């Protein structure tokens, strides 16, 4: 058992690879009536859960760990989705038939989407994060609707008809790599001096300033990289569904991410993983309940918030999320 | 040259003159007290010194550079650290993280190192961990290093707040009512600690305090304020016997 304690990183990597292999096998091997247990529908559901995890973890960076209240995360997702889809579909006409050209273009396109979303985040965050208080909520909400409306009236982006014919670059492998890389990067940032400053801003902005932290700069930076990850998620999302519509990215979508975050536990990365994972899959598994589904689902949400006010995970983290602590040398007095 | 030189400092809030024509010079290594009845403008002076407010008039020169108009974090980085009247810890962070946060602006690694956990990150983290645990030992808080700071007993929270201020490696330490809520025994300990701090960390200390025993016992020089004006200044024995000070605290004819 000591191996598990001394090689935590290795164990985590092995666990992720095994999960992937199992899911992949279940989606290929003919187990049920000559077909795989996980058909395309379930694979799409798993992919959506991965995208929602990245969206929620990035939202948690701003709302949970920096203590700012952003409620328009889907707006940045839209920027990323439309940017990357325009690049791969409209301008470069890439297709999945030639993956050696297609995938490099796809990766560059989703990164470009992320960068443009980050730029939008910078424009939204800079004026509103200078102020202390709830201004960010109002501004992000407006920005979300502004972005959606602009897309709706821009014919070059498909306007109210939406944008279709997007090549399906997002598969199980893409989602696995994208989710793990994104979560690890944000986890790393959180467990650093900069991450501690984020929490300091949340706990007491005045004291954070008094300990030499440029709180405005820290808040804006977190907001910008959060928007970046939302943008990249949008790109991955567009290339999964192959069709995007401005109404996919309305305030209701932003609200979904807020629900995932607070039900999972806003001050824990693990919570921001559990929340969307459970509540993306759960409503689909409840389809058998038919018309009762939309009664049971909100009921589960309400009960969770009553009995676990701080979310499912509270402030606790899974072991594999935490950075191993080094042993301090004992000094005898 | 004085470490801190404040000249003709005046602060208006709308039509209210909170501080008028305040002057103070602090020499390196001094312990100076600022006293006065409630509403005299002491905390306003502290807030102006630390950049929370920009003064209406006057100059503040710290260590040869003008700090008027600078932001709070820039003033802290220049070497002025403070504690708060009502303790403001990062209450959800651990005790040791409170210290590490105060060291943040000295950390050598940037955003990229933070995302990728490069070698520079690990070196920086090791450095700050050693620094923080050593500082906690000096304040007898090392046993609580991993506890959530909000769960510490009151006295320990006060000590941690001072330790956190020191983690920014200041040259001037400003204490806002450090003995608030302390019993006489704790206050005695605090007085001892303030002297020890000055010698150990080579500090200059400016403090606001209401417990006269503490002020008289620890300060070498005292300034008395009332209604924004400086009414008296001098060594403790002089202040104790000054009729203007008695009047400010107790009213005329007392």
Structure description:
The complex is a heterodimer of chains A (333) and B (254). Chain A has a domain at 41-249. Helices cover 69% and strands 0% of the residues of chain A. Chain A has 13 helices and no strands. In chain A, α3 packs parallel to α7 and α11 packs across α12. Chain A is globular, with a radius of gyration of 21 Å. Chain B has 254 residues and is of the alpha/beta class. Chain B has helices at residues 42-49, 72-78, 95-102, 111-116, 119-138, 154-166, 184-201, 212-218, 236-240, 243-250; strands at 4-13, 16-26, 31-35, 57-62, 65-66, 80-82, 172-176, 204-208, 221-226, 229-234. A six-stranded mixed sheet of chain B has the order 6-7-8-3-9-10, sandwiched between helices. In chain B, α3 packs across α5 (119-138). The radius of gyration of chain B is 19 Å and the shape is globular. The N and C termini of chain B lie far apart (41 Å). The model of chain B has no long low-confidence stretch (mean pLDDT 91). Chains A and B meet through α7, α8 and α9 of A and α2, α3, α4 and α5 of B.
In short:
The complex is a heterodimer of chains A (333) and B (254). Chain A has helices at residues 2-6, 8-28, 40-65, 73-91, 99-129, 135-153, 172-190, 193-203, 205-210, 215-241, 251-264, 269-285, 293-307.
